[in-house]
Amino acid sequence: MSLKELKHYLFFLVACFQISLLFLFEYHNLALIFTGLLFLRIIALKKPIVLLACLVSCFLAIGFFFMNKHIKDVNIIQTDKAEVILYPDSLVIDGDFIKGVGQSLETKQKHYFQYKIKNMDEKAYLENVVHPLVIESTLKQIEPSQKRNLNGFDYERYLRIIQVNGIYQIESFSKVGRLDNSLGHPLFLLSSFRQKISKHIHKTFEPMTASYMDTLMLGKQSTDVREVWQQLSLSHLFALSGVHVSFLILLTRHLLLRIGISKEITGYFEIVTVLLFFALSGFAVGVVRAGMQELVKRTNKWLELELSALDCFSITLLIHSLFTPFLLLTVGGQLSYYLSFLILFIQPTLLSFSHLKQSIYFQILLTFFSIPLICFYFYQIHVLSVLLSLLVTPVLFGFMLPMLLFSLLLSPLLPSLLISIIETLMMIIHQLPLKFSKVSFFTMTTGKPPLWLLMIVIGIEFYIFIKWESQKLSIKKLLSYFIITLMLLVCLKYINPQGMIAVVDVGQGDAIFIQLPFHRGNYLIDTGGQLDFKKEDWQEKANQRRNAEYTLIPFLKSQGVSSLSTVFLTHAHEDHFGDIDVLHQHIPIQQVIGTTSTINSPNVQKKLTSLHTTEVRSLSIPTYFRKQDMVLEAIYPKVATDGQNNDSIVFKMWLHNKSYLFTGDLERQGEEELLRDLDADLSVDYLKVGHHGSKTSTHKEFVKRITPKEAFISCGVNNHFNHPSKETLETLESEGVSIYRTDEDGMIYQTWFYFSKNMSKTKTIR
Fold first, then answer.
1. What single string gives the DSSP state of each residue in 248-308?
2. How far apart are CA 606 and CA 610, in angstroms?
3. Does residue 323 come out as left (phi exceeding 0), alpha (psi in the -120 to 50 range) or beta?
4. Coil, strand, or helix at residue 96?
5. Closest Cα partner for 630 from 712, 516, 525?
6. How many whole angstroms separate alpha carbon 735 and alpha carbon 738?
7. Handedness of CA 455, 285, 109, 138 (dihedral sign)
8. Are β-strands 566-568 and 591-594 bridged in parallel, bridged antiparallel, or unpaired?
9. Cα dist. 514→22, 567, 581, 636, 749 in Å?
10. pLDDT, tens digit, for every residue of 446-503?
11. Measured between alpha carbons, how far is 508 from 723 in angstroms, rounded to an integer?
12. pLDDT of 378-403, one tens digit each?
């Protein structure tokens, strides 16, 4: 078996290697089907040597996996007291909280560490750290959070993918010092170098310029920059990174040739430039992929191997996966390699066009091909993403990148006036995507398409492009078919006959979501929220992200929710209404309904002032809401009082032949009033337990009267109130009620189909 015999077929070998690694990490039925199709394609080649090589590749992947303990094993720090080294460029300080990546001298593996800063002096010291820190500390292991809501982020899985072995809280430390002999530790030396550059950037330049320098040159993730471009469906521009590498190579070549350096020597300097950019970017996936692909191409040329562009791509992926085995399970890895593959696929077809048309068609096709993957991970697309891609790409990489690079290189010589002018230019450039991202009219929330549909849409796009490539379609027809295909993703929610009711895990709070089939109504009972405790200025976080931005909002977007028909507020406690303002910023609310006392509560009024386009209504008891086969009746309180726990609205709901009772934070006094005032039958199938399972709610007579089969408790993990109480759990168990609780089970939900009479069994995430 020789390389010559496998030329032009290396892609199949590397695909088999990668699939085997991913299978060993986690099994997936669809991946099994894809593997079967891949081997059918290999067999269809009728080349036994390729089939044999692919089988050998699979066995090599298995051996690679099991022979590398750092891949398959998770080593934890066994002692409470340990000595760790922190990478300075990974340290992130926000208010009185610091986190970063470090290495334990015991395990010799990477871990995440976090620490609550005690005072201003500690913070000042940590903010100026540029060298690796050696800390002898008392540690407490923290369990990384698993996925808690449907389509939510699984932090535990993410840590396994990037091979970080656990999270540790630094309780206290007895010794802090600089790492001696940094030259003997290349990664620590590199980390220190990157941190010094980052500190220099933020000290020299103004905020917007510094954020883009961090993103484009150091590979750091600026939240403000990332989110704006992500909302415009243009995040692929930052994942590709080939433009960065190409620009640096061209710059190096131009400068060296101009001063008389030979082409041969210049070629070596170009390689050094690529390697330096690897280090400077912190080995960011996109940069490593682009740079390594360039090096493989040059090696192919120098050794006259006559490998195809696809072969070079495949070798790049293989080498990269030896250092980062599961990179194709990360969003950055998938986007970078998928788009790189698209370039190889698209560019040869465009060679017959003029340079201008090549650029236009290339950006259009790249954006169309990337949209399905963007929908899958970010749940929405921007209607103008294709046009914006054409406008923005030259600005980003033809103007912004060179300007920032030269500004950084010449920063010691730049006058303050020029630095201010650069910041003004950066603000102007940033305002374009920012303004477009805030126009909700252009944003289409698709929800998360099923994996099978994603694969079908991508397959159809490739088929359409191949038809165009063979000159069987005009460019107009090509774009028309692309748009029609992508409409499958956009319109899926309107033809989906499935409905859902979910007790969303928002921590220590309540949020109950109801979605009707065919997307004919999205309703929310409470929004979740948390109390903010007053801190000193130095303790306040700069990035004040709200709980809903991690929990409720991503879940709603994954379900295709672009607006909420009605949000019902049960009462005026922060953990039930507190996130309504940030929710409205991301997902417009058409109507808010609550009791007079809740709506007029000063805290609620403060939140409602930001909901300019929302109708706010007070309800009286009883009130009915009907939509499709949902009937929602507000049955308590008859007279609104103070908006506190016993003033909670109690809803009885009939949905698809099942009945539910939602009691807000109603306590025993309110439960007794409810039983006394209502002579009607209160029996239900499902009870949302009041006040997060507190012992002051859900008394025995109440449970006997409503006779629920199942009870749902919404409470936070390890909450300070010790909810749910032992007494409440015992009461429910004594009545034979099945208990589901968000702190242990994650999101609790049921689904049904419009054409079916049956509701699904209660499901949970964990």
1. HHHHHHHHHHHTT--HHHHHHHHHHHHHHHHHHTTS-HHHHHHHHHHHHHHHHHHTT----
2. 8
3. alpha
4. coil
5. 516
6. 9
7. negative
8. parallel
9. 36, 10, 20, 20, 10
10. 999 998 888 889 989 898 888 888 877 788 888 888 888 888 888 889 999 999 999 9
11. 9
12. 898 877 777 777 777 778 777 888 89
Helical spans, DSSP H, in 78-206: 120-127, 155-161, 186-204
Contact (Cβ atoms closer than 8 angstroms) between residue 245 and residue 280: no
Beta strand pairing call for 167-178 and 380-382: unpaired
Please state, in angstroms and rounded to a whole number, the distance separating the CA atoms of residues 507 and 746. Answer: 9
At 134, give phi and psi (nearest 5°): -100, 120
pLDDT tens figures, 621-638 = 888 899 988 999 999 998
Helices and strands (DSSP H and E) totals, the chain: 32, 23
Among the residues of 438-497, which ranges form H helices?
451-469, 475-491
d(CA 757, CA 759): 7
**What three-state secondary structure class fits 140?**
strand
How far, in Å, CA of 89 to CA of 83, rounded? 19
**Quick one: pLDDT at residue 663?**
94
Residue type for position 725: S
Phi then psi for residue 763, to 5 deg, are -115, 155
Whether 96 and 542 have beta carbons less than 8 Å apart is answered as no
Q: Which two tokens stand for residue 69?
A: 């303990």
CA distance linking residue 531 with residue 671, whole number of Å: 26
Q: Which tokens go with 332?
A: 């950055």
Provide DSSP, 325-346: TTGGGSHHHHHHHHHHHHHHHH
Find the helix packing angle between 29-44 and 10-25, rounded to 10°: 160
The two most distant CA atoms of the chain are separated, in Å, by 97
Say how far apart CA 733 and CA 740 lie, in whole Å.
Answer: 12
Token code pair at residue 615:
């109708």
**pTM score:** 0.91
Amino acid type, 20: S
Strands (DSSP E) found in 87-161: 92-94, 97-104, 110-116, 133-142
**Rounded-to-integer distance, Cα 492 and Cα 490, Å:** 6
Pairing of strands 110-116, 522-525: unpaired
The Cα–Cα gap between 555 and 533 comes to: 27
Taking phi first (over 0 means left), then psi (-120 to 50 degrees means alpha), and beta for anything else, what does residue 560 get?
Answer: left
Secondary structure (3-state) at 640:
coil
Nearest-angstrom CA–CA distance, 136 and 84: 7
Pick from 148, 160, 176: nearest CA to 112: 160
Q: How far apart are CA 433 and CA 415, in angstroms?
A: 29
d(CA 46, CA 424): 61
